[in-house]
Design brief:
By secondary structure, the chain is α/β, with parallel strands linked by helices. It contains 7 helices and 11 strands. The protein has one domain: Aminopeptidase.
């Protein structure tokens, strides 16, 4: 009961925040939303490890690496601002959101039996979700702005895949681009996983739910690096213009997918 009341109070606070955030600058919103995430602190009775925010369209945004996680007994650093981005896009579009907000003793993305995944499945079943966008962070030195993973076309329909690709092109991120303007599609990070690691996108595919994995370069998601970030370089700041561009692109993608288009998962 105590845990239930704590989670309920937190959800009420988030709803109030959503209304207040709508009037603010997107970068300011992103930073404020991310400040709720404590990368290095484990969850307890008062601070849940992950949070679900109910939406009103059949799309779910996921940020399983919002805080530090544990993979095969080893600590892995957080994907900074992916939780903040998921929340911000959810606020703008009405999408459902699940995100990690405290350090995890599991890897919510890789571990097949992670509680995060079981909650995600429950959210999907109870809310008739028909698409999941799983957000991740890539290193600033990677040779792409966005890497899209669809398990080489198996995790979603070609129609939905093209909606995403064409929307990124609209925001000047394409397969023909260079550096931060490049969209990598199923080349570097297709989301296939392996026998010991089942990414969210593969988990969704196994459960007949269309999904994509979106890896976002640090330059396109980190307005300012926080003091508690795992990465030693605390001076890093991404490109605010590119970050706003990604916020707009992701909002467009979610809105397009949430318009009621029929989604059929490939076999």
């Amino acid at each position: 009961m105590k845990n239930f009341i704590t989670r309920l109070l937190h959800k009420c606070i988030i709803m109030v925040e959503r209304m207040a955030q709508a009037k603010k600058d997107p970068i300011e919103q992103l930073v404020e939303l991310e400040n709720d995430i404590l990368y290095q602190e484990y969850a307890d009775d008062k601070q849940p490890e992950y949070v679900y925010l109910k939406g009103n369209i059949p799309v779910l945004l996921s940020a399983p690496h919002g805080a530090v996680q544990t993979r095969a007994g080893k600590i892995k650093e957080e994907d900074e601002y992916t939780a903040g981005l998921a929340r911000l896009i959810g606020n703008r579009t009405g999408a459902h959101v699940i995100y990690v907000r405290r350090k995890s003793r599991t890897d919510p993305n890789a571990d097949a039996t992670a509680p995060y995944k079981q909650t995600l499945r429950q959210i999907v079943q109870e809310n008739k979700i028909n698409f999941v966008l799983d957000l991740h962070g890539a290193n600033k030195d990677r040779d792409f702005g966005i890497a899209l993973g669809t398990m080489n076309g198996k995790s979603c329909s070609e129609e939905e895949r093209q909606i995403i690709v064409k929307t990124f092109e609209k925001y000047e991120i394409s397969e023909a681009g260079n550096g931060l303007s490049r969209l990598d599609v199923d080349q570097l990070l297709p989301g296939e996983g392996n026998d010991r690691r089942e990414p969210i996108v593969k988990f969704c595919h196994r459960n007949s739910l269309p999904a994509v994995q979106i890896e976002i370069n640090a330059w396109l998601r980190i307005p300012v690096r926080r003091a508690d970030a795992s990465t030693p370089d605390k001076s890093f700041k991404g490109d605010q213009r590119l970050i706003i561009n990604i916020i707009e692109a992701l909002s467009d993608i979610v809105s397009s997918i949430g318009e009621g288009k029929v989604v059929v998962c490939n076999t």
